[in-house]
Amino acid sequence: MVDTGLYRHMWMPLYLAQRAIARLLFRTPAEGAATVLYAALSPDLEGECGGGYWANGHREMTMPPTFDPQLQLNLWETSLRLLDLH
Asked: Which residues in 65-80 are b (16+ Cβ under 10 Å) and which e?
């Protein structure tokens, strides 16, 4: 979990408990963004796309359907249509 400002509106005793736990267990916003930024911007990944899931700075194994180019294209086109971006 990432320690963000989303918790600031909680009931004060709960907020104070969350702050203590967050310092011990949560990632900072910078740490939380590191994997996303690496996957989006790293020249090491140039040309690689699709079928991957990234967590904690590492690519994780996924199920075989995630590597299906037709399924990827269908998902992309459906997303565009749902967002009215086609």
From this structure: eeeeeeeeeeeeeeee
User: Is residue 75 left, alpha or beta, with left meaning phi > 0 and alpha meaning psi from -120 to 50?
Assistant: alpha
Q: How far apart are CA 65 and CA 72, in angstroms?
A: 9
Q: Is the pLDDT of residue 47 over 70?
A: yes
Do the Cβ atoms of 71 and 50 come closer than 8 Å? no
The set of residues, in sequence order, having a beta carbon less than 8 Å from that of 81 and lying 6+ positions away, is: none
**Report field, pTM of the whole predicted structure over 0.85:** no
Asked if pLDDT for residue 51 goes beyond 70, the answer is no
Instruction: Tell me what the mean pLDDT of segment 75-86 comes to.
Output: 93
Rg of the chain (C-alpha set): 18
